[in-house]
UniProtKB/TrEMBL annotation:
InterPro entries xref list: Kinase-like_dom_sf, Prot_kinase_dom, Protein_kinase_ATP_BS, Ser/Thr_kinase_AS, TPR-like_helical_dom_sf, TPR_rpt
Entry annotated with the keyword Cell cycle: no
TPR repeats: 616-649
Protein name according to UniProt: Protein kinase domain-containing protein
Superkingdom of the source species: Bacteria
Organism of derivation: Mangrovimicrobium sediminis
SMART domains, per database record: S_TKc (SM00220), TPR (SM00028)
Gene3D superfamilies: Phosphorylase Kinase, domain 1 (3.30.200.20), Tetratricopeptide repeat domain (1.25.40.10), Transferase(Phosphotransferase) domain 1 (1.10.510.10)
Keywords: ATP-binding, Kinase, Membrane, Nucleotide-binding, TPR repeat, Transferase, Transmembrane, Transmembrane helix
PROSITE patterns on file: PROTEIN_KINASE_ATP (PS00107), PROTEIN_KINASE_DOM (PS50011), PROTEIN_KINASE_ST (PS00108), TPR (PS50005)
Amino acid sequence: MTEGSMPDSEGKYSILRPLGRGGMGEVYLALDNRLQREVAIKYLRTDLTEDGDWHERMQHEALLLARLNHPNIVQIYDFFEAGEAPALVMEYVRGRNLRIYLREHRAELADKLRWLSEISAGLAASHDAGVVHCDLKAENVLINAEGSAKVTDFGIASHSGDRADDVAALGVLAQELLADNAAVVSPTVRDLLRRLSKRGALTAREAAAQWRHAWLEQTQSETPLPSQLRAQQRRGRRRATAALVAVLVVSAVVLAWQLRTPAKAQAVAILPPVMRDPGQLSERQQQILESAVAQSLQEAVLGSQRLSLVGMTEVDTVQGSAAEKLVALGADILIASQVKCSGTVCDLDLQRLEKPSGQVTSYRKVSVIADSPLGTHEAVSRQWTYLFPGQTTANNGAGALDEADYLKYTELNLAAQQFSRSSRSILAAVESLLRARRDFAPLYYLYAQVALDTYEEMGDPMYLDRLERTLELADPALARSLFLRRSRFRLDLYRGDYQAAREVIRELEQEGADDALVAYLTGEWHGAQDQFRAAGESFARAAALQPSMQYLYAQARNQYWNGQPDAALATLDGLLKRYEYNTHALGLRAVILLEQGKLAAAEQALRLSLDIQPNPLVRANLGMVYLLMRNYPAAREQFLEAYDADSRDSVVLLNLADTEQLLGNVERGRELYRQLVARYSEGDPSVITTVAAQAYAQLGQFEEAMATLKKISLAREQASSPAVSAALVYTLAGQHLVALVEVDRALEAGVSGVMFDLPFFDPLCTEVRFRELMSEHDRDGRCEQLPGATATAGIATEKR
């Protein structure tokens, strides 16, 4: 074959040069003229073209390879007849086969273990597709330019072969590959080699997980522990001469101080992957691929003790150059990724950029398969040691998953980010996966995040109970991961177990955790106990050490809780200059503006937040704005959407019931009030006391309403001020003098007079003192026109 167009390929390919000759065919490097990429073309040798059996075998190889889609298997792109000879168009792997590579390079033990993990993973993928290789050996493994292994040459593969033969061949290959390292391999590796020598003892999938574990164990062992460093120092001092003793003592003191006070953890921000060319990928395929890339990088950072992950909610809201993003995020390192696809094969570029200028300090390029999120995860994980040399990350257990389960996890992670499924649905699906895959750490991360965020939104302790049970499934080592300990910390705070929460902080301090994180958690601990001054000092320290969105938001929220709304707004304004589209900051700002009676500004902030990211809690707050504006149809629409989003939030249900009443849907409103009262009387802790009191009053059950008010604790509740609720109850009961006392108390506590614009308070307009209070709080025209007075009177009659 000479350089030029391949015969009978319709000009699709141009031959560049020969690559080699095998038992069945000759292999050429060619150019795909349509996609402008290099490919390898293997066509049947001319001396074999008359042999129908060889022709069938090559077709057989093409059909088998077409079923295999994995980053550790050489991919097939096309098959056609070249004259009388069949031709197979494959991925071009720029590299050498393993046998030749070992002759030409000195391979580290860690590389060999990683290759065995990759070979096993490719083998497992072929077995999952029902294909047995039947000829696994060093010559049929390619090492590409990135140093990754790919299984090739399925020429004699079979559907009916025995998978145990492939695993046995894997064991032989492993013994051969590790022969020079026999004296230094770990007990884990020795045990694995022993098990592979026993036919049927392991599947390829199990071997892949074991080899990956061995590789991670080896890379972690290459980083000396502090105790090992100190031992080396002691040995060095014993060998030193007397003349150097003083110098060494000083060095030892400095080293010991460094070991007691670890350097600040590096903050890493994972930028959303950029899809440069989706090729023929559907929008859903693009989303899955992007999610698999991002979550794999995030999990690696979470598994490192010396790195701190910047939250994705922060990352998604910043724009500008790399240097500007580093400043805005308070990050030390950015990881950027770009994807360019052809068919289902995609090139993934990974870059590490560092402050202050955003200079690229590391670059990796790897091929991934769009339809294989697990393969993408494995490919990205292999780049970790290149992007973060010297940094280790915990084994997250992905090796125990198959492709279908990892796809489910990726889809659930995506659904949680996009709010495309209800929280209950996501939690139930994760629980189901965890029953089968208890060793996969990211499932616990996802479950804890969704459960805790849902509890914050809905206040239902059921989510805390479910999280408690789920965390008990995690093995002890996983339970001590930083992320799950932070989740346990939040759980302890919500439970009111402050001693247990403080113990988590103490442990992290002793282990040398990031100072900013410790300060932030300390602030959360103080804030949960209403120790706002101490909390403010801790949050200010955290923000000074690392001005991240999370720490600045915590500072603003604490100021709000401490009765400093103007200070909170100032902090939020500063935060929003950095993170213009941060939904948490926009939401809190809207709540403060709402309480200050600035309804138009509150509506604008909530609308912007919803445009960025749908959220039932934001919808509920927007509904409250419309309720106070007396735009009841718009309020009803928002409350319905909030409630339909799987919300058992009793405040949302109460507001919806109020809106139905004000629209004249009296019976529907009463039905919702009855639901709340029934749940409260049955002991449902998600129905808070102020809500129950108002529901009783709206049903005309005033004795029960007043008895319920007496149960209200002085502690802060997850609702409007108890004084507002009490004022409403007494107004509906016709006890205006007591109601006025509560109105006065609410206004003194900082509640805006706009909260008393609801028609339910219209009967108080007959009282001089109420009109005076409204005038004192910038509501002069409150009682001049009463558009809802007639409707309110009708409602009051119905309730009584």
